[in-house]
Design brief:
6-stranded parallel beta sheet; 199 residues; 7-stranded parallel beta sheet
Length: 199
Amino acid sequence: RYVGTGGNDASDGLSWANRKLTLNGVENTPVAAGDTVYVGAGTYREQLTCDVDGSSGSPITYIGDFTGEHTDGVGGEVRITASNDDSTYESRHGVIANKDYRTFEGFTIEVSPELAGYYRFGLVSTNATNLIVRKCVFYWGDGGADLIYTDTTPRTHLFENCVFIGGYFAIRIRATGGNVDNDLTTIQNSLFLGQRTAG
């Protein structure tokens, strides 16, 4: 499936020529386990909400195609922001990934540093498992990722080759239903710049 500037959410999204315009437009197709979504260069001014689980061996994968190899042949930054104008932020988060077996690669995710009274993160996941995030850059907000568990079951997540810039937390793991004694989240080969506290 394909998303890119100049697309149309009324299109089927099954080729670059028939690409969707928005991330939520392709998500609502709906995507299915095993799908790969190639997202062309540009700024996507929306909060992506994941609606569908992938499955073991068949994740749902979103790839920010910054090389242009799979989309327009040109490439460039693939940016998700909940701002309409890079000044006013309408939504709290960049991606809400509350579904299992989801993968994100190659995105710059930017949220508001100044949306008072709310937590705001590049990516939020509640009770999902097997989330993979690679080659992503997270800017500002309260942090890059907020992993929330309402019980004590450890989840398997992987963050690798990412950059986290600003905010209080890079990755925050919290259990509202008790302590998670053996969380299985792996964070590797990543860079952390300017966080104000440990997550």
